[in-house]
What does this fold into?
Amino acid sequence: MRHRKAGLKLGRTSSHREAMFRNMVTSLFKHERIKTTNAKAKELRAWADHLVTLAKRGDLHARRQALSIMREKGVVHKLFDEASERFGAVAGGYTRMVKLGRRPGDAASMSLVELIGAEKSRSAKSKKKEKKAKTEPTAEAAAEPVPSAGESANV
It folds into this structure.
């Protein structure tokens, strides 16, 4: 029986698995989204949630614990700087997993893992509204008479 045995083995040795997830979680926080298999994505969520929890704590010990997992100081500093404002109100579930279908080479089921929170990219609807507002003429421009084709603008 497998009671109270957390984590997936994924057919790798423990050192390989640990190194792989350290690299994956570092890439996730560096690029804010990565594409991987479903099994790895499910396990990656636990690693990412643990690191965001450390970052929300924000003290020196938590920073050192995060640095022991992610070895890139710049990524850890970025995470600790933006964690409280990005994930402050949320009490867990800091990642989103979007299933992408099958990989062409070996038909492995793929997923996109991305961070949630205050999204940097705005939704398409808000982008359309901003674009429409920029293209509409202002009240001042509408009040000015437009010269017809036969008239000169400098009359």
In short: The domain at 14-118 is CATH 3.90.1030.10 (50s Ribosomal Protein L17; Chain: A,).
